[in-house]
């Protein structure tokens, strides 16, 4: 087929239309970090189940497919609402029955509902009858959404789409607030402290989990209901962090640099670690 000017215009239009939608989720390194932290904490039973469910091409590395759910968003249109939660502007609270719905008001279609749903599906693993679900996809969705729900701006305000419509400068570059939290803070941290190597970031967080945060890990893993996971707790923490840290002091065209970076990086590190620890605890509970 020969491309005419109008084809090119259509393509450019389509790309411009699609690009803002891509910005839903920790970036690749954020998701990879959550999955790598989790996989290293699995019980033998959970590690075997994960190995069994992963496609051979993943070579038993859950991290390599942790962003799969972002890649299939356009193929599985129905799944794009499952990466986040929109809460009422400026309330800084989250309630499942009020907020867990998609744009059309269909309930349970949000990241908390998706975590519950894919957990339920995975519980059919190992049953005598073949599962009615695609459990490989259920595992990949669950691993991804446990990351997303810990990104504070994935439980953001409705009118700015979790910071996606707030233009800012990240140092000298143009960005949007949502992307700052998905990618920019992590990238800048990797450049400054980790030789631009995500593996060094993962090592540093793993060291904190066994060291500085060791006392807190038990409380991260537990749910007051006694039943894992508890996405409503994770979502409530995220909107609190979104208000206290992500949105705080930011307005349209704010220039965000060291002041913002140095005070927010600890929040990003904490949320990545919590996401990994809780994904592991959830998989251990499902497959245990
Ligand atoms: Zn996502």
UniProtKB/TrEMBL annotation:
Keyword line: Disulfide bond, Endonuclease, Glycoprotein, Hydrolase, Metal-binding, Nuclease, Signal
EC number: 3.1.30.1
Enzyme class: hydrolase
GO molecular function: metal ion binding; RNA endonuclease activity; single-stranded DNA endodeoxyribonuclease activity
Catalytically driven reaction(s): Endonucleolytic cleavage to 5'-phosphomononucleotide and 5'-phosphooligonucleotide end-products
Superkingdom in the source lineage: Eukaryota
Family annotation (Pfam families): S1-P1_nuclease
GO BP annotation list: DNA catabolic process
Signal peptide: 1-25
Stated family: Belongs to the nuclease type I family.
Subunit structure: Monomer.
PANTHER family: ENDONUCLEASE 2 (PTHR33146:SF27), ENDONUCLEASE 4 (PTHR33146)
Protein name (Swiss-Prot/TrEMBL): Aspergillus nuclease S1
């Amino acid at each position: 087929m020969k491309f005419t000017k109008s084809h090119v215009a259509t393509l450019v239009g389509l790309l411009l239309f699609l690009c803002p939608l891509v910005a839903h989720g920790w970036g690749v390194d954020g998701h990879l970090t959550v999955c790598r932290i989790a996989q290293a904490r699995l019980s033998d039973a959970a590690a075997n189940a994960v190995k069994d469910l992963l496609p051979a091409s993943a070579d038993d590395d859950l991290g390599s497919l942790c962003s799969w759910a972002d890649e299939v968003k356009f193929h599985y249109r129905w799944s794009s609402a499952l990466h986040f939660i929109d809460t009422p502007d400026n309330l800084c609270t989250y309630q499942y029955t009020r907020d867990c719905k998609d744009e059309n008001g269909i309930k349970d279609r949000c990241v908390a509902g998706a975590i519950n749903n894919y957990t339920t599906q995975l519980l059919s693993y190992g049953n005598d009858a073949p599962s009615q679900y695609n459990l490989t996809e259920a595992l990949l969705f669950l691993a991804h959404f446990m990351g997303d729900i810990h990104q504070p701006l994935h439980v953001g305000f409705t009118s700015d789409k979790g910071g996606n419509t707030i233009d800012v400068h990240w140092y000298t570059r143009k960005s949007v607030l949502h992307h700052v939290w998905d990618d920019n803070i992590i990238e800048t941290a990797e450049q400054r402290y980790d030789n631009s190597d995500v593996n060094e970031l993962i090592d540093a967080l793993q060291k904190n989990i066994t060291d500085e945060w060791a006392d807190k890990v038990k409380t991260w893993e537990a749910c007051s209901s006694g039943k894992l996971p508890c996405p409503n707790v994770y979502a409530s923490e995220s909107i609190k962090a979104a208000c206290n840290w992500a949105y705080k002091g930011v307005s349209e065209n704010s220039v965000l640099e060291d002041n913002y970076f140095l005070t927010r990086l600890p929040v990003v590190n904490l949320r990545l670690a919590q996401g990994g620890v809780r994904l592991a605890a959830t998989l251990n509970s499902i497959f245990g």
